[in-house]
Amino acid sequence: MKPINNPNLHGMVPDKSDVALILLDIINDLEFEGAEQLIEYALPMADKIAALKRRAREAGIPVIYVNDNYGRWQSDLSKLVKHCLEDDVRGRPVVERLKPGEDDYFVLKPKHSGFFSTTLDVLLNYLQARTLIITGIAGNICVLYTANDAYMRDMNLVVPSDCTASNDKEDNDYALKQMQKFLKADITPSDRLDVEALKRRAAEEPSPNNPSRQFAER
After folding, report:
1. Could you report the per-residue pLDDT of 27-72, keeping only the tens digit for each?
2. How far is CA 96 from CA 20, 28, 44, 57, 155, in A?
3. Which CATH number applies to 19-204?
4. How distant, in Å, are the alpha carbons of 72, 114, 176, 205, 216 from that of 25?
5. Angle, vertex CA 52, rays to CA 155 and CA 142, nearest 5
6. CB 176 within 8 A of CB 159
7. What is the DSSP code (8-state) at residue 99?
């Protein structure tokens, strides 16, 4: 549904796009139990997301960082980025590859899903986005929960298989298969994803949850 009043959200949402790119919990120090394994998968994931982000911005697709507050209710984007870049933390190389830009959006979340008690719904409504490209950490938890909530909102989902990471690769692969099967997500790898074709298809076929859609390059 398009916003009726305040169509530009007080001038703060200049972008309008049928498609949005979501980066989940990328600003992350990875200083928790099990992250020793996660970093092995997170670094190649970060390179893939960085390349996808560049292509998305070139195509006019807005980028939204949706990030956990890690139980610190005084957190904000600048504090999280500063901590991850300036302190000796495991997640530093991931954040270096994926630092937010001035034109990117940021949503702080308290729980696993990017939609739970956040402003993401409002932002997507003003952007008029109905197709989400969801990437990030962890594929079997926050990515899965966010994709599920997006599906229940009748959004079309793309979850590139090389743009998510979990502590365990088997768990990550299983989560991707679940999203593909039950949430009708397109899990085409990012280097085969044609973002321009995705934009055109999203504009031409706004009806949600169509399992026949294929966004990969032919």
Report:
1. 999 998 888 889 999 999 999 999 999 999 999 999 999 998 765 5
2. 22, 11, 13, 18, 31
3. 3.40.50.850
4. 14, 9, 17, 30, 26
5. 50
6. yes
7. P
Domain boundaries, the chain: 19-204
Assess contact for 35 and 78: CB atoms under 8 A. Answer: no
DSSP state, residue 8: T
Place of tokens 């398009």: 2
* Token pair 């200083």 in the structure block, residue: 31
Cα 194 to chain centroid distance, Å, stands at 17
pLDDT surpassing 60 at residue 6: no
Predicted structure pTM score = 0.88
Average model confidence (pLDDT) across the chain: 88
* Residue in the block written with tokens 């911005």: 57
